[in-house]
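Thread: Newbie trying to understand structure tokens

Hi all, I'm a second-year student working on a class project, and my supervisor (Dr. K.) asked me to get a predicted structure for one chain before our next meeting. I've only ever worked with sequences, so writing a 3D structure as a token string is new to me. If someone could post the tokens and maybe explain what I'm looking at, I'd be very grateful. Here's the chain:
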Amino acid sequence: MPKLSLIQGILFDLDGVLYVDSNVIEGAVEAIAEIKRRGYRCRFITNTSTLSAASLHDKITLLGFDIDEREIVSATRATLIYLEQFGDPVCHLLLADDVRHDFDRFRQSDTQADFVIVGDIGDRWSYPVLNRVFRLLTGGARLIAVHKNRFWQTEQGLQMDIGGFVSALEYASGQQATIIGKPSPDFSVRR
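---
Reply by user tm_fold:
Sure, no problem. This is what the structure looks like when written as tokens:
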């Protein structure tokens, strides 16, 4: 098949498209290898907010994909790029422990922050957590959501994602979140 000159590159979503949890979608590894062999530039995008950049790359590699870490554009990475424009902001992080390491360059506080960054914290959601964030938001912090997904596909079926918590925080604080993950315009694959 001849390569069409109009195609600049191909974007692939990761979780739910190339794999689900730790199960590779049948033929996905071979399809990516063939597309790359034909010379197409590829970028791999994801709203996954439970894995650091290094852990996400390790997972993809262990699943058998030949994907360079620089080809992966995650909502977490886009959030880091977004925050850099504010110099040295103080952040309150609602992120998985592994992802928090990617944010080490920013000052962090549980009591006064410029930004509250919301990602997936799994079973750690609670009224005390929500109320702490509510107080930060009503005290002047801005709400940044790594994404606002309603749900995602897991090996056990669909699972509720962070979108409901983000909506609750928006409603309670009267503040509209800045959403970074796809399909937001702030989610850029060119950075």
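A couple of things are worth pointing out once you decode it. The CA atoms of residues 112 and 139 lie 8 Å apart. The mean pLDDT is 92. Feel free to ask follow-ups in this thread.
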